[in-house]
Design brief:
Elements: E1 6-8, E2 15-17, E3 19-22, H1 35-47, E4 52-54, H2 63-71, E5 80-85, H3 100-114, E6 119-124, H4 132-149, E7 152-159, H5 162-171, E8 176-180, H6 190-193, H7 195-201, E9 204-208, H8 229-244, H9 249-258, E10 265-269, H10 273-280, H11 289-299
Parallel strand pairs: 3-4, 3-10, 4-5, 5-6, 6-7, 7-8, 8-9, 9-10
Antiparallel strand pairs: 1-2
Helix pairs in contact: 1-2, 1-10, 3-4, 8-11
The structure holds nicotinamide-adenine-dinucleotide.
Length: 324
């Protein structure tokens, strides 16, 4: 049985498990799940040494927080709990509120659903949907103020395009950055933009979606996946190639991301004990270098193909139109 390994989350000093539990599947973001099995997955993860749990009011439109809160009853002191504020739905026009007033209300709502009186890492959810000025001058100061109330220990930002995350982290004080789908077998552009900054400023770097939101699995991407079809199709081909070598692409994908020297925790979405088990087995295991080289060569034509997310002024350079 592989032993969990821990890293320090930047200047927070928190010792976090290298695999973090992504709770968005508890909110059925990837389809209907069995809630009892979801709860068992949470308990099993804790038993096996996972101590970092990431959720958001947005996941399942509050369902994931409610389910995680129930699962963590009696376990709160064993885990580092991260949630978010500012995003509540999908659409730019209606799904977001980054005002200080909403942030202060949001934290109380999350505390109630999570059945706790403090959040370890409180993050602005998908800053690319906000106005730069508001995030810097209103949202982040409100979040930082919450530290004084004891409701929040550390403050972070999350998002998809890497440049806006860098700009915000350079302009204001943040403890953590969560970047998703930008460091895995399909895309490594997090390293070009965020990793050097995180290292220099001792910001805790969190890498989410190591399976590229299921592109890098045998099951394949969900219908709603925003990547261009050629990326999703390449995932299918790469999964079949790995299968022909007797390897599950999810294992290779996890082994690959876990070699990263700066990322403190990698968040993988889970709602089944069998996935917790499978993912834990990749800790401390280096990918087979030959297979890795072959898969990266296969994927190369679509490597680092990013899609547009958020407000147009926040798109990463070269990002292509989103699919859905
Ligand atoms: P992911 O790449 O982790 O993929 C999750 C999907 O893969 C789920 O359907 C899960 O059931 C499945 N899966 C997990 N392990 C598997 C295995 N071994 N084999 C086959 N399938 C497996 O994508 P994600 O869930 O979007 O990202 C992980 C977590 O990161 C999220 O749950 C969330 O907590 C966080 N996240 C945050 C943001 C943000 O803050 N903006 C964005 C994306 C993700």
């Amino acid at each position: 049985m592989s032993e969990m390994m821990y890293r320090v989350l930047g200047k927070t000093g928190l010792k976090v498990s290298m695999i973090g539990f992504g709770a968005s599947p508890l909110g059925q973001e990837f389809g209907v799940i069995d809630p009892a099995e979801g709860k068992r997955a949470v308990h099993y993860a804790i038993e096996r040494g996972i101590n970092y749990f990431d959720v958001a009011p947005y996941y399942g439109r509050t369902l994931a927080e409610t389910r995680l809160g129930e699962a963590l009853l009696g376990y709160r002191d064993k885990v580092i709990l991260a949630t978010k504020a500012g995003r509540y739905d999908k659409e730019l026009a209606t799904g977001f509120d980054f005002s200080a007033q909403r942030i202060l209300k949001s934290v109380d709502e999350s505390l109630a659903r999570l059945q706790t009186d403090y959040i370890d890492v409180f993050q602005i959810h998908d800053i690319e949907f906000g106005l730069h000025e508001q995030i810097i001058n209103e949202t982040l100061p409100a979040m930082q103020q919450l530290k004084q109330t004891g409701k929040v220990r550390f403050v972070g930002i999350t998002g998809y395009p890497v440049y806006p995350l860098k700009e915000i982290a350079k302009a204001a004080e943040v403890d953590t950055i969560l970047s998703y789908c930008r460091y895995n077998l399909m895309d490594t552009s997090m390293d070009d933009v965020l990793t050097p900054l995180a290292r220099e400023q001792e910001i805790g770097l969190i890498n989410a979606s190591p399976l590229h939101m299921r592109v890098l699995t045998t099951q394949g991407a969900p219908e709603w996946h925003p990547a261009p079809r050629r990326v999703v199709e390449m995932g299918r081909q790469a999964a079949a190639f790995c299968r022909s070598r007797g390897v599950d692409i999810a294992d290779l994908a996890m082994q690959f991301v876990l070699q990263h020297p700066v990322v403190a925790t990698t968040l993988v979405g889970m709602s089944k004990t069998k996935h917790v088990d499978q993912n834990l087995k990749t800790v401390g295991v280096a990918p087979d270098p030959e297979l890795l080289a072959e898969v990266l060569a296969l994927i190369k034509p679509v490597a680092n193909v990013a899609w547009q997310e958020g407000r147009p002024e926040n798109y990463d350079p070269g990002a292509v139109e989103k699919q859905s």
